[in-house]
Design brief:
Layout: H1 3-19, H2 25-31, H3 33-39, H4 58-69, H5 76-82, H6 87-99
Helix pairs in contact: 2-6, 4-5, 4-6
């Protein structure tokens, strides 16, 4: 077997594993009701102090939500909101907001 083909296949598999959205956007939408109060029903906030989530990359959203959950990023409101979210909930929410274009 050609070693170049094997290496390309492995690199592609590794890259797609890192970049694919692991979450379920439908499940995320079902969980996003509480988020809408600040971030808007469709991920667009009506209040400038709350960021828009619509179209945000899932990996970024996961990173931020996990930082709020483990309190490496402090915001009392967000820390409380994410405290009960599971990793699956976080991935689903991230997939939902990324899916909004």
């Amino acid at each position: 077997m050609n070693i170049k083909i094997i290496l390309v296949a492995l690199a592609t598999l590794s890259f797609s594993t890192l970049t694919s959205a692991a979450g379920d956007a439908v499940a995320g939408k079902a969980k996003a009701g509480v988020c809408a109060a600040c971030h808007g029903v469709n991920g667009v906030s009506a209040i400038s102090i709350f960021p828009n989530l619509k179209g945000q990359k899932a990996a970024y959203t996961v990173k931020q939500l996990k930082a709020f959950k483990d309190k490496t990023r402090i915001d009392p409101s967000m820390n409380a909101q994410v405290a009960t979210l599971t990793d699956t909930d976080i991935e689903n929410l991230a997939a939902f907001y990324e899916s909004l274009k």
